[in-house]
């Protein structure tokens, strides 16, 4: 008796996971680092009188723009006019004394020739000429000093800019070098001041040594600034200063950029966000943010190999450019990166890949400024 053979059913193959893949966009990229800071006047003057006296007149409107040399306050000039008159009278007196001394010295010379006076008397007359000549010079200098003090009774703007309100009124007494009359701040150009991290300072110095980006101490690297209520970085400036020490408490270094402000819109104290050229040009690949998977401290992307299986690759990410994330290292231009459907993948998973072509997702709003040197930090631009 023959038993009928039983065939085993063939197990069904698991369905391949559907994913969307694309090769990364390639761009020449320049990094831009972001900072926060405030605008600061290049010239900030506490206005104090150079002579003491009673305020006679105020010649400006509180808060107005003033030009350099513009009269602002008048201190009662009458005592100083009198001092000029006294000094000039002293000059006249000293001149007369000198003329008399010279006449007596000439007479003494003739008498000495006939031995009518002694050598000692002659030398006394000679010394008197020198003394009276010095007295005349001192009197003339006193006139100059008195004229200066008279000139200082009109207090003028030492710099161009915008003046604050008056701190004294007519009738108040102002003490030389002590009483604050007002304050003037320059507005055009204006500084944008900020503090940079020690790590960024070290990066910039190494880039400068490698010839990738000029140091902001010697190169006017471009800066763009966004005000608190603005959607874009519309204010442009150039770096002009980096301090010579790093603050030991904060681990930061002071710096500022110069910004043109011809209409005076920007005012000292305004808050702003700035982006500073942070690198030279380098090749980078761009992929969507959702293609990147965070695994504790690592960032991964999945690529589909020639065998149709998913492979995980560790990548080094950069800033957003045109709505896509910069990948600095970890993938090649030919890798088929999983841009959709990668969250449930495991290495070695067979996939059904649908290929698309990546396009920029946003307009490039990065700075248009060109670095002075062939110039790598956190905001970037597509070149």
Automatic annotation (TrEMBL):
Q: What is the protein's given name? A: RND family efflux transporter MFP subunit
Q: What InterPro entries does this protein's entry cite?
A: MdtA-like_b-barrel, MdtA-like_BSH, MdtA-like_C, MdtA-like_HH, RND_pump_MFP
Q: What is the lineage of its organism?
A: Bacteria, Pseudomonadati, Pseudomonadota, Alphaproteobacteria, Sphingomonadales
GO CC annotations on file = cell envelope; plasma membrane
This protein's species is Sphingomonas xinjiangensis
Compartment annotation: Cell envelope
SUPFAM superfamilies of this UniProt entry? HlyD-like secretion proteins
* Location of the Multidrug resistance protein MdtA-like alpha-helical hairpin domain: 86-153
GO BP terms in the entry:
response to antibiotic
Q: Name one GO molecular function term.
A: transmembrane transporter activity
């Amino acid at each position: 008796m023959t038993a009928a053979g039983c065939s085993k059913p063939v197990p069904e193959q698991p369905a391949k996971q559907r994913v969307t893949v694309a090769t990364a966009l390639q761009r020449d990229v320049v990094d831009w680092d972001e900072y926060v800071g405030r605008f600061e006047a290049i010239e900030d003057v506490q206005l104090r009188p150079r002579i003491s006296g009673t305020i006679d007149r105020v010649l400006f409107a509180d808060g107005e723009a003033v030009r350099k040399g513009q009269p602002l306050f008048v201190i009662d000039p009458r005592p100083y006019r009198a001092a000029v008159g006294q000094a000039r009278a002293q000059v006249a007196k000293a001149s007369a004394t000198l003329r008399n001394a010279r006449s007596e010295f000439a007479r003494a010379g003739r008498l000495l020739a006939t031995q009518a006076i002694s050598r000692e008397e002659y030398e006394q007359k000679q010394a008197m000429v020198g003394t009276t000549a010095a007295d005349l010079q001192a009197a003339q200098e006193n006139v100059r000093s008195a004229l200066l003090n008279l000139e200082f009774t009109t207090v003028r703007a030492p710099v161009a800019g915008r003046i604050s309100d008056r701190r004294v009124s007519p009738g108040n007494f102002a003490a030389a070098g002590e009483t604050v009359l007002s304050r003037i701040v320059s507005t055009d150009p204006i500084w944008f001041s900020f503090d940079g991290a020690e790590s960024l300072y070290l990066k910039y110095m190494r880039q400068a040594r490698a010839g990738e980006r000029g140091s902001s101490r010697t190169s006017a690297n471009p800066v763009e600034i966004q005000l608190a209520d603005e959607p874009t970085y519309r204010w442009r400036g150039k770096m002009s200063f980096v301090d010579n020490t790093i603050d030991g408490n904060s681990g930061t270094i002071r710096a500022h950029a110069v910004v043109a402000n011809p209409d005076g819109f920007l005012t000292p104290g305004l808050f702003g966000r700035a982006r500073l050229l942070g690198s030279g040009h380098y090749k980078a690949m761009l992929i969507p943010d959702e293609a990147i998977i965070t695994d504790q401290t690592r960032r991964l992307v999945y690529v589909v190999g020639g065998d149709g299986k998913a492979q995980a690759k560790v990548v080094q990410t950069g800033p957003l450019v045109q709505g896509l994330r910069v990948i600095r290292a970890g993938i090649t231009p030919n890798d088929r990166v999983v841009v959709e459907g990668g969250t449930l993948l495991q290495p070695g998973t067979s996939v059904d890949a649908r290929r698309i072509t990546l396009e920029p997702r946003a307009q490039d709003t990065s700075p248009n400024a060109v670095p002075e040197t062939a110039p790598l930090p956190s905001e970037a631009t597509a070149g």
